[in-house]
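Rotation project, supervised by the postdoc (A.L.). Task for the rotation student: set up a whole-complex structure prediction and record inputs and outputs verbatim in this book. Inputs entered:
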Amino acid sequence: MPAATSAATAAPAPPKVLRVSEHTIEIVSDSGEGAQKCGQIFGAVSAKMGNGVWTVELIPAEIQPPPRVPEGASGNRIRVGEHAVTNWGDRTHLVIAFNEQVLLARHRVDALADDAVLLVEDKWARSDDADIVEAWNAAMKELSGKHYRIIPVAMEDECLTIVDNPKKGKNMYALGLLARIYGRDMELIKQQIAHAFRKKSEEVYNQNVALLELGFHWAEDNIDFRVEIPTHPAETPLVVMNGNEAVGMGAIASGMELCAMYPITPATSVSHYLSEVFEKFGGMVHQAEDEIAAAGVAIGASYAGKVAFTITSGPGMALKTEMLGLAVMTETPLVLVNVQRGGPSTGLPTKVEQSDMLAAVFGQTGDSPHIVMAPATIEECFHVMITARRLAETFRTLVMVLTDANLATGVTPFPKPTLDEAWQAAPLDLSPVRDGQKAYDWNKETGLSERIIPGRPGGMFTLTGLSHDDRSKVAYSSDIHQHSSAMRSRKIAVLSSLLKPPAVYGADKGDLLVVGWGSTKGAIEEAVDRARAEGLKVSSMHCRFLSPLEPGLREIFARFKKVMTVEINYSDEMGDPYVTEENRRRGQLSLLLRNATLVDVDCWGRVPGEPLRPMSILEAIRGRLPRGGAA
Amino acid sequence: MSQVCGLLPVLDQGEDHEYEMSEYEGARARWCPGCGDHSVLTAVQRLLAAEQLAPEQTMMVSGIGCSSRLPHYMKTYGFHGLHGRALPVATGIKLHRPELAVFVTTGDGDCTSIGAGHWVHALRYNMDMTVMLLDNNIYGLTKNQTSPTTPVGFKSNTSPYGGILPPLNPIEVALGVTNASFVAQTAEWVPAHLYATLRAAYHHKGFSFVRVLQRCPVFTPAIFQDAVKDPSRIIMMVHDDGVVTPELDKVYTSQVHHDPSDLAAARAMAEQTDRIHLGVFYKNSSKPRYEELRRVTPRTPAERVQLLEKEFARYAV
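Outputs recorded:
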């Protein structure tokens, strides 16, 4: 295709129709130009029409980065498929960019397919400012290295026929372009616009619809192709949301009533959502003065009644460490959600990583046995909260839930959960305690005990973070700490005995087993499908529990010649300078698995600050499986 | 959150049971002989008996330090948590169970140093609880380290050549916090005043902050000795709406009539550190209380499911 064509023609020929099973679309702009709203509506409408959809936000690290700089690229990436879409995919096929600099950003991170179609606001090419024109020309030169098809669009000039401030309307114009190109249902789009601007006036709605139609008609007159992705309307009701909303709704469905938090990206949107709705459900969000206090308030509330939860990200989890140990030591149920971002330190606040696993499992001082779970999909972000609350209560301990920025900001439809009242916490039992009931009536086999909450006559005792005996009396003799440590630890073994071995995706034996955890499941399975189509004997498996690990791993691993984890955390590659088998720093899951199974589990990890692409995982698989399969 | 209030079972003691002081006694106190903490423990037990608080409806929350051992010596529910973190735990308890009577004991290190952030915010939350700062000007449990309230020149294991920074004045800090509603000072060696002050604090609806001046018999036995020996070094702030202890009038003759609603006067007095002021510096019952502001309508599981169905409709594809 020609590198730069003008699409404007007097008498348009009927558009060429591209029939594809999936397409990935991006809309990128400077921060604050509304690209995300455009992308969200496009994704929602595509889902309603019966397409699989996975939407991710492209977020700059700053709130108001300077305009027209690549670092400020902000927007949405929407992968639309004929069937369910489980991850953000590989490269983008069509981009709408509000300036050439944000487009360059996407080009430079290799986000765009070689033959991508790029619709670019071209007012910059016609600017009075020579620097801007020069920047435009330089960008076009840089982009010309690929086979992109660049279509200039005078978006702002068009919008100015309707609005005074084009910055406020371009996103709806862009939505109109997409609606025409992808044959989206305009009525559904208008409904979404009405919902999105429900707090604004009808005039705002009308203006947005006018902009939408303007874009639609321009595309009709000027774009010489259309894209058709078959739709299959769902037979069961679906809901569409991001992982943080799913966590919030799951918390409500579990009957928890208190979320104590301190603002931290990318976890905060859970509390934004809950702050809006939680009180309606008899719950509340407490914004504490710091991360430590957030954990303390949750522990206090849990101790006094129903299990409470706190939500944070890596740096916040680090600050809460001492509180987490307190929950474990006092056997106070607590749910902590860590929406992981890149680290260490402040790291990559808005970007995905899976680097907190070892800190989550082992990061507390002393011996601190607790439960760590990792939902693999946005749907699981909902259900994990119900399980987490129940496990925290039953096992009287800390349950950590590790999600990540990919799940938090990804948006995809899933079957509407069938709600069950039994998921919710029971009403508080304030009856007198049994005669002789102790603060920790440990079952010597299981370590489990019934917890006593304040208000129960006859049960008075002082909970303490000091080592204590079963009556919660501070331990002064040597055997007590040994015994109480065993009781707390035993509970984890008991939980492990109740779990099922993980399912293997693909054949149950072969040359390579790829093992993942958390948000990478969709991308890993897509890569495995492609590898199997190439004839490689590859299967995959996903860990939902990290402490304890699910049972049966050794037996599963034995059926494969090679086992390798795929993780979004840093690991040395064999062959790197100075790196040996002995000193190699390995992927976090691979360390856990090696420890638990004594199998020589290999790892492949990357920390690009974005979700893994199936293509990259496929390449890693090919790299580990030279011709002829594993050695 | 607070739906339990109406569901409380009838107390097993029956309504006509009268609690004796001894019914609030827990394990034998293991503080050093002569420690001011013993006085506070007795005053608290006396207060609970006077108020006839059901032990199972009473919470003693503490952090870490000598003073934070107090919950163990009570026969109520207790939460002996982390150093500096008693207030967040108490906040969580009170938010979820506002019907419980909550008392917090903390020390000068626990409250004004490692827990200072929580202290400021707890004053601002103004939740209904009684907070006792047992201030002996030293870290005792970890054996003689300088605390924020240690006097200049005082030699400790961490300041062997004497403390160099002016000590923090917890009363000034408390009076400086927006929405603080009750700030008082008393002394461990004046038991009648200690008791009367705790009682006034308990009766105040809101965050009642009481600094109890104490001597550590091991590390700071001399700090308040001048005032102990010479009552004229103490100025009693008296007011009908504050603390009134007529039985002490003959001993503590230096008195000032101070209206606890006068914040400016309270601050001015807090700054005068040449003599010790005892009594209520500030009291304001009209300040908003966080647990009241956050009161929500409780929901049954069935209601919650019904509402959640509606919520899912907003996200329906």
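Student's summary: The first helix of chain A runs from residue 35 to 49.
Supervisor addendum: Residues 1-9 of chain A have pLDDT under 50 and may be disordered.
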